[in-house]
Amino acid sequence: MVATQRVAVLGASGYAGGELVRLLHEHPSFEVAFLGGKGSVGRSLVASQPHLAGLPAAEMLMQDMEPASIAAAADLVFSALPNGSSAHLAPAILDAGSRVIDLAGDFRLDADAYPAWYGFEHPASQWLGAAAYGLSELFADRIADASLVANPGCFATAAILGCAPVVAAGLADPGAIRVDGKTGVSGAGRAALESTSFGATEDSIRPYRFPNHQHTPEIEQGVMRATGQAVSVLFVPHLVPAVRGVVTTAYLSAATGATTEQLTECLAAAYTGRPFVRVLPPGEMVDAKRTRGSNMIELQGVVDARTGTVVVVAALDNLIKGAAGQAIQNANLLYGLPEETGLPTTGVYP
Amino acid sequence: MVATQRVAVLGASGYAGGELVRLLHEHPSFEVAFLGGKGSVGRSLVASQPHLAGLPAAEMLMQDMEPASIAAAADLVFSALPNGSSAHLAPAILDAGSRVIDLAGDFRLDADAYPAWYGFEHPASQWLGAAAYGLSELFADRIADASLVANPGCFATAAILGCAPVVAAGLADPGAIRVDGKTGVSGAGRAALESTSFGATEDSIRPYRFPNHQHTPEIEQGVMRATGQAVSVLFVPHLVPAVRGVVTTAYLSAATGATTEQLTECLAAAYTGRPFVRVLPPGEMVDAKRTRGSNMIELQGVVDARTGTVVVVAALDNLIKGAAGQAIQNANLLYGLPEETGLPTTGVYP
Amino acid sequence: MVATQRVAVLGASGYAGGELVRLLHEHPSFEVAFLGGKGSVGRSLVASQPHLAGLPAAEMLMQDMEPASIAAAADLVFSALPNGSSAHLAPAILDAGSRVIDLAGDFRLDADAYPAWYGFEHPASQWLGAAAYGLSELFADRIADASLVANPGCFATAAILGCAPVVAAGLADPGAIRVDGKTGVSGAGRAALESTSFGATEDSIRPYRFPNHQHTPEIEQGVMRATGQAVSVLFVPHLVPAVRGVVTTAYLSAATGATTEQLTECLAAAYTGRPFVRVLPPGEMVDAKRTRGSNMIELQGVVDARTGTVVVVAALDNLIKGAAGQAIQNANLLYGLPEETGLPTTGVYP
Amino acid sequence: MVATQRVAVLGASGYAGGELVRLLHEHPSFEVAFLGGKGSVGRSLVASQPHLAGLPAAEMLMQDMEPASIAAAADLVFSALPNGSSAHLAPAILDAGSRVIDLAGDFRLDADAYPAWYGFEHPASQWLGAAAYGLSELFADRIADASLVANPGCFATAAILGCAPVVAAGLADPGAIRVDGKTGVSGAGRAALESTSFGATEDSIRPYRFPNHQHTPEIEQGVMRATGQAVSVLFVPHLVPAVRGVVTTAYLSAATGATTEQLTECLAAAYTGRPFVRVLPPGEMVDAKRTRGSNMIELQGVVDARTGTVVVVAALDNLIKGAAGQAIQNANLLYGLPEETGLPTTGVYP
Fold first, then answer.
1. Cβ neighbours of C242 in A, within 8 Å
2. Residue C77 near residue C70, CB atoms below 8 Å
3. What is the mean pLDDT of residues C85-99?
4. What is the pTM of this model?
5. Could you give the CA distance from residue A156 to residue A223 in angstroms, rounded to a whole number?
6. A to D CB pairs, distance under 8 Å
7. Which of C34, D47, D79, D229 is deepest in the core (most CB within 10 A)?
8. In terms of CA atoms, which chain A residue is nearest residue D296?
């Protein structure tokens, strides 16, 4: 057991921030020592996260996000701020000697991708090369030594973990991967929007922001780095009336002769011994609800020989495996802890 | 105005049956004269459909489904029974001289497709050739003269109306169409199942019954008949936590140089003057919720030049445009009425 | 049939405003001639209400709410603005000769009630005495001659229609009525709030704003006017994860010897021949879902002899019988039309 | 720390059974040694509870519920069977020397209450006097020594914990307590019913089974035992579109001069130091969602001086504090452990 590490949570009043605080309380080696935010500075965390009442962190005050203060207070900083914030904030924290795990998209891509996919010029592109892409199941080696980890996006986590082994094994053509995503509303964050109001969401099923969703290049890059092959991905996300839950359904052209059994074995072999990946046997179907409240991802592979298609479906809880849980999994790797330390593997059902 | 026609509704205690009775009450030319069912014979309709209280039909008794009695009572029979029932029942009704619009899958395919996709040998395959496939926007000519109409499936309606014009115009390759479907639970009918219970459905997102869903060959056949081209379709449906609403997202390989503008124009041109099809301009996104309670379908086409993909998204209310409303639209064609007669074009929102 | 009347809808971009436009399109005697709002002036209605596409009114532009222009354009004005707006706006419209039906609370109470329950001094208290309280089933006589109608609140409609006949018949003590309300989120309007976001609402059940909810004095006043008896009401509303639907459960001390049968008969007798009230027989339970999309209210009365309590439960669709539908019902009375003209009596189920 | 106890879970394939297994896995002193059920005997637990995959108990086989085998396998038996089962089963288990915590209503009342409220003659009435009523916050002394604990109903837990201190303190009249309940569907269990299907539940708000709901006498008895005063309770439960969550809103006549501050202090004093009760300060409102996934109950008291009413609102997660969590809390008391051992105090939000 390592000594207890002091950690900071930035964006603690949001959904992912709240989950970070809740999960960190269960963790034996991390202790929340700093809470940062924008709108609620000077108030205690419990004012914005009343469900956390009773936790020690709930009575801590939200503080201004001054890099020096953050670094003084915490060895490790979880940043759960909206896209575009940590690109400005993280470098000074890193320079002051703390490590950073960024849950936004600010350190996931190459510099030239930011204007097109995120709408801004990256202000600290010198850090992009140093950032480890925190998909623990695929890139654990690089994460362990990093001072800056780019925690993957929820959709990207699902799609990359599903597709990378299949492409690597040559069971499908990486040339034209179409990923159809479905998500609940919590991925859009906690800010009040008409589009994610209850009135607009009940019985609503709708695509959004395609073909320009910012997880598109992240999926391409993730599969490429994991397989060494060039890939081309189209990603079409859809909003459905759920709070948590992401499902990605990836369509690839099957290699000749590929079978569902091979596909299943390929996925199972890729994640043997990994505590958070459940590969379903042929005939069973993934369900995002089963993963709710846990750090699990469910994977299912099917070859449709009739049409020559490989389908890989992945399901996870976007706030845990797709955000706060995966961030803690990365933190475990940073400190040499078993990656499952302090993380739930069982969903809260129903 | 034609004279009032007496109609029968079989399966009146189900979801689609209830919508048929409700919508027929608003129709100027049809009058419910017979209600048939299995479980509730001898009870008034209102016992199983209490929201219909006050309608004349609500006080009518549910009757045994004796073909001769049905045909004696009604000139036109809407059959909203589960798959596999009307294949046995409809022929005798037709022989007795009434017309039949079947909302199940019993008359949509060729005989040799039934064992594989529906799990039964068709008992009345001689009627399959005579049945008109009731996708009004594409096959109105054939429907007008038919005595038997196979009302399309909800997913098939969405996918075919979206893909057929695009394939016909040569904007995409018909060789490998992948259709990703999302649906609320009402498409599974009213019978109590654990899988569609509230407990199992809230926050659940999950694929089901793929790649063997029975709408797969129906989509292939529909696009083929509409375009004259051979097509290959993989269909992967997903259940999401909604009651009504179907969205299909179809992925096709784009023809060289195809653009979103061309795609939009192609869809708009195909349905000019058709009252129930709304083609969205580039940049707008379909939403199943907007169609809820109406007979509308929303269509949206996007070309992703980067990956060479055509995406066609369609949204509708599965109980209306995907079932009861489309059946009445077909009935209008059968009787020479304007196809929009008695049908709602405005959704009930929010 | 009276001649077609030109009507205005103020607040047309909100939920109740959208329902007004949708329902007015089905009405044989009213034609939308003016659309007013605050945030969307100069844009067509369809931009904020895309589900209304295809209706003539959908292409009309939203206009500034200038009283003279409104009165010039419309004989009758439906005001679906937030509380506090029509108190300033309606007088000038009335002075200019048009009639007004106000869906907010601005003309429902006496002047001295406004500071305490609504938080403002009423700026046009001279109009309060002239306003007819538009609960059609109880006060039709006064409504018919009014130039200003205060359309009742959703909770108040349910509670008053349930309790008034029981108090009038002496079956319960009017001295201490406790009304427990449950509502979906659409009653809070369309503005984006964190409290009515999907994330905050799924699986949330919670009381709000009691014992100071502004429908409290409205219920007291309504029952008093209908019965001539002094009443005392406590009202506790709760938010539940629904879009539409209001249920009020009223608890009263039973008169000695009162029975469920007497209670049911009393309710049935009070609303004999009224098209929108359904009184359930003993043993059946109301359900807000059955009224969804209709102007119906369901009532159920139970005497619990063991504890000496009368329970009256009422259910309705807050956007229709609790807002837009009831407003049109009042408009029918104003123009001497049958009160059910153009209004749906059948819910959209499921 | 006591030695690890072997426990049995009967009804392990249901919702409460699944929560028991999940929570017991987190408990340091209990180990699941036997799983019993009716429909799934011979299959592993994971077949009916796939979200538990990975837990040791998930691979255990469901077994026939033979009392001798159960008692041989387990020192403590949690019975999460439907009402009416454990009355037959528990006595033999108790005779064989194991302790039983029954989550159904079979041992909560006196013998003469069963025919009227549960519809059966109690087959083992000699055990009723020996059963401790397991509302830990009020009756911990009696529970510690019991061999049979009747775990309270979800509604009863909420209503009794809210009302008992208020009645005991003389702040309200115990003569006519009206309890209005709201619940999600999981309280009805996992069996597929049309009434709790997603189609019937979305946007449904409806009362049920009143005034005869079986928690009525349980609330009366609980408040009486805790206060020594005769009380009279009417209970009206309502179903709302949620999975988890119970809110009870109790209406009592206020004692002269009682204030909200006194009420709040009274509740706070009653539960000082109890880990699972959160009493809200005046002005804050309870929310069932905040308790979801935790063993917490939120309480809020308001005096409405205008109408002379005390309102006590309580919110909890019906599957945890209202079932599985409270059962483990009782088990902790049985074994002399701190009552919070192994139980979550933080909800999973959103």
1. 202
2. yes
3. 98
4. 0.98
5. 10
6. 61
7. D79
8. A51
